[in-house]
Amino acid sequence: MSMDALNKTLDAATKLAAPLGVVAMLYLQSQFVTRVEFTKVYERTDARLTKIEEVLIRMEASADVDRRHDISLNDHESRIRTLEKGAIK
Predict the structure, then answer these.
(1) What is the pLDDT of residues 16-69, one digit of tens each?
(2) Helices (runs of H) and strands (runs of E) counted in the chain
(3) Torsion 25-26-29-31 (CA) sign
(4) Of 14, 76, 78, 89, which is the most exposed, with the fewest CB atoms less than 10 Å away?
(5) Could you report the per-residue pLDDT of 52-66, keeping only the tens digit for each?
(6) Closest by alpha carbon to 30, among 20, 22, 40, 42?
(7) Which residues of 63-72 are buried (b: 16+ CB within 10 A; e: fewer)?
(8) 88 pLDDT exceeds 80?
């Protein structure tokens, strides 16, 4: 390949690179989420997270109640076992 042909090819490539770069940048910018879309999704996600937190708080309170009931049941069971052992003798 001669020097003239190489220069013409490089010249054409550099002239095409700028418009292709602009088109690529426009395409990439169109792929980003707009502020309005982001705000909508954020609000929905925040509402869902709030509901999940409320459910977790209720579940934790329920687990505390269950723990107290288990302790009470174990105490009653041990008392019943003690009475049964006393009645057998």
Answers:
(1) 899 999 999 999 888 888 899 999 999 999 999 999 999 999 999 999 999 999
(2) 2, 0
(3) negative
(4) 89
(5) 999 999 999 999 999
(6) 22
(7) eeeeeeeeee
(8) no
Alpha helices by DSSP H, listed for 1-89, are: 3-30, 35-88
Alpha carbon distance 58, 81 (integer Å): 34
SS3 32: coil
- The answer, as to whether pTM is greater than 0.85, is no
Question: What is the rounded end-to-end Cα distance, in angstroms, of the chain?
Answer: 113
Question: Rounded to 5 degrees, what are φ and ψ at 31?
Answer: -85, -15
> Tokens in use for 20?
């292709």
Residue pointed to by tokens 């329920």: 62
Residues contacting residue 6 through CB under 8 Å, at least 6 positions apart: none
